[in-house]
Amino acid sequence: MSGAPAMEADAMEGLKAAMAEAASEVDEMLDALLPKEEGEERSLFAAMRYATMGGGKKLRAFLVLEGARQFGVARHSALRAAAAVEMLHGYSLVHDDLPAMDNDDLRRGKPTVHRAWDEATAILVGDALQTHAFATLAAPETHSDPAVRAELCLQLALASGARGMVGGQMLDMMAEKATAPLDEAAIGRLQMLKTGKLIEFSAEAGAILGRAAAGPRNCLTFYGREIGAAFQIADDLLDLTATAEEAGKATGKDAGAGKATLLGLLGPERARIQAERLVEQAKRHLDGFDERAGLLRALADHVIRRRN
Amino acid sequence: MSGAPAMEADAMEGLKAAMAEAASEVDEMLDALLPKEEGEERSLFAAMRYATMGGGKKLRAFLVLEGARQFGVARHSALRAAAAVEMLHGYSLVHDDLPAMDNDDLRRGKPTVHRAWDEATAILVGDALQTHAFATLAAPETHSDPAVRAELCLQLALASGARGMVGGQMLDMMAEKATAPLDEAAIGRLQMLKTGKLIEFSAEAGAILGRAAAGPRNCLTFYGREIGAAFQIADDLLDLTATAEEAGKATGKDAGAGKATLLGLLGPERARIQAERLVEQAKRHLDGFDERAGLLRALADHVIRRRN
Fold first, then answer.
1. Model confidence pLDDT, tens digit, residues A127-150
2. Can you tell me the ipTM of this complex?
3. Distances in Å between the alpha carbon of B173 and those of A124, A280, B55, B252?
4. For labeling, which of A160, A215, B105, B220 is most exposed (least CB within 10 Å)?
5. How many domains does chain A have?
């Protein structure tokens, strides 16, 4: 019994090291994939790099890589898909931070793109990062099987479009202006769309790359769904308790802006219990996987313990 | 000899009728593909429809459809690809019109999206339309061959991303702030990126759908390139001479804003001669095609004669 907490601490250290290693590999891939800072329009290229490289936990990329590991996908394929997901995520952050949206000055401890450059550049950077995500997935270098590439493009688009991430952002904006607070079902739907769908896709992408059967593919998708929901609660708890320095962005904004969060509805205690329940469910979806899923299991535990 | 102008007038009438018919078919396809105006986030869906349906010449869609006709592509496939290109084009217009970009109030004779709704909605509408273009191309319904779908996604992304349309928009923004005017080569590059690449892709898409050999595919691509360049000059001439009512948008802005156009550099006479030369070259790329290319030939002639 006495070994358990130590083992858990070991797993946590192993996870952190693996995530840092993966983030650095993904940064290298982003460096290779994104346009070099040259030519007349180099400030666009520079800002695309600024918005995606060298910062952030790259959780979504990690999910792609670890999902891919379950099916023995070639590292180069997995890294390209992981980089594409980070481009998509980066685009959403750049546009989310715009004055007309959340109007944020700080992101990952650095000025947001529209602060470091200007608003027009930030709009174009987000637009181009989205495009580049699809260009990356569709290119023959990502996988020799065009059916895999087309499926990756389709599922990423479904996860991030009007009925996915962007739809969720629209609901979020509307919630801020609404007079009546959202109920639990409405908040759940909003967050499932806004952040959940892309995390779900990230977990599923490895199975698509590995041409996995529907069974294991669905297990990863469901794992991603629970992890995504737990991650959102953890993010809200962090916003409540962490300092801006720890989080690398403005914190305590949610309560101030009357943001629709499960935390606001349930309170921190019940929200934390809910997140723990989600983590347990997430791990259960991995029951059919072998020891290669160790980092995915550790990640589930990590989600609700992180400080940034 | 005396029959030639009459034949030409007939061809022009035939083209106009065909373009109107195609635009209406593409609108039907957009109606089928875009999310219905229902649910909490219906204003997002409504604005996506507003930005793409029921207005505009749908030149790009027409190019897709007529390109596809050369290779006997199924109408349903061609219409889906045509609708996707119009979604992509619509997104670029919505973002281009934003206050931080061109700050336009009028588009196709109607208030721009950020005027009819608000800025945040316009940002999200553009984002979601881009995503939906890729979702449409990647879906199995567009073509039974996944290699065709992946190639369509890849080429659309290359045409519209940081090294295509968005790169061109960046150059355009920079040109407006620049102290020295651009030279002919720089303007040519700007316009090739900003509007040329997507028109080129539109002409090429039919060949991709038809799994055409490199030879005829390149002919269509080159045709699209010349048409695109001629179209840009015609657009600038129109901006100079047409009324806002005719054009459905603010005109005379280019000269006022010191916009970098070939027209500004060459003057109207030389610019018109240049456009006519491009039209002749465009038609020459169709020499190897049979009578099915009649509308593409007529379109080339039409480009520099249109009033809106």
1. 999 999 999 999 999 999 999 999
2. 0.94
3. 10, 51, 26, 18
4. A215
5. 1
